[in-house]
Amino acid sequence: MKEVTLKQIAENLGISVTTVSKALKDYKDVSKETKALVRAEAKALNYKPNVFAVNLRTKESKTVGLIIPEVVHHFFSSVINGIINEAEKFGYLVIILQSNESEELERKQVDLLLSKRVDGIMMSLANTTVEVDHIVSIKKANTPLVMFDKISKMIACSKVVINDRQAAYDATKFLIDKGCKRIAHFRGALLPQNSIDRFLGYKKALEEHGLPFDPKLVYICEKVDYDDGRAAAIQLLADGHKIDGLFAITDMAATGALTVFKENGINVPQDIALMGFSNWFLSQAITPALSTVDQPGYKMGRKTFKLLRKEMNAKKQGIPFTPVTKTLKTKIVERDSTPK
């Protein structure tokens, strides 16, 4: 079937191609009657704008790239929803790529997005990312970039984060205020900045409240998921450590620990108070419901795209853009896994 053009619409209505184009773009110098006629004819002919031609003219692809560690994670799915909902308001298509926590795959995805000439890139780093030269290449290509959640302090770009150190401090202090004196921590891998900051927040809370820091009570969860939480809890019990509180880096890891405690006749919160992080949607559906830190994923997504759009607009207008960092607030959500 032959593609419908502006010229065909113009000939059918006996008006100029310019008038048809202006009517479809809602120009003020075209009457309402003419706009209505043009739109009706365009609909009848099933007219679709030639996106490629528009992109060549405006030098925009109207596509942006998003690289995240994993799609199925509740937090990242919330971020995705926030980004897509905001992007759709301005006619942008979001290309979503999953790095699977792999630096190698992340590098390939950056190259792919740059080769596709996307208007901008948003990304949260993989846990295994050490070198950041592939991210530097985004800046060298003059492609707008916003990092969120798992970021690199070495990259001068806009960022949307939470204060992970303060949030972890608050979570640990919450357990201390509930009477816990020997608190374990299931942390993330050694590299991601948010894993480092949450560990440091945990440690600082202990030290500032007169509780000794014991490195033997810190267990690394590489994937910070349910299986990691189970494995760390099994090891904790095998090591014979007596604890009365546990702060886990994610709700998934906390949930894994909870199942192990149940299987071993350990009552939560009577024997061990349990605190998660992120406010995963199932954290209130498990028994006991999980106390956690609420991490605003949807809001982070919206803020991330808004910052990217600001930089894209500045680039389009030839205006210098200074990167900014937006820090979103978190809050403690108290449920049944901690004493009342």
Tell me what the structure shows:
The chain is an alpha/beta fold. The protein has helices at 6-13, 17-24, 32-44, 51-58, 74-88, 103-115, 133-140, 164-177, 193-208, 226-238, 251-263, 297-317, and strands spanning 63-68, 93-98, 120-123, 145-148, 158-162, 183-187, 218-220, 245-248, 273-275, 292-294, 325-328, 331-333. The chain folds into 3 domains: 6-49, no CATH class; 59-161 and 297-330, 3-Layer(aba) Sandwich (Rossmann fold), CATH 3.40.50.2300; 164-295, Response regulator (Rossmann fold, 3-Layer(aba) Sandwich). It is built from 12 helices and 12 strands. The longest helix is centred in the last third of the chain and has 21 residues, at 297-317. The radius of gyration is 26 Å and the shape is elongated.
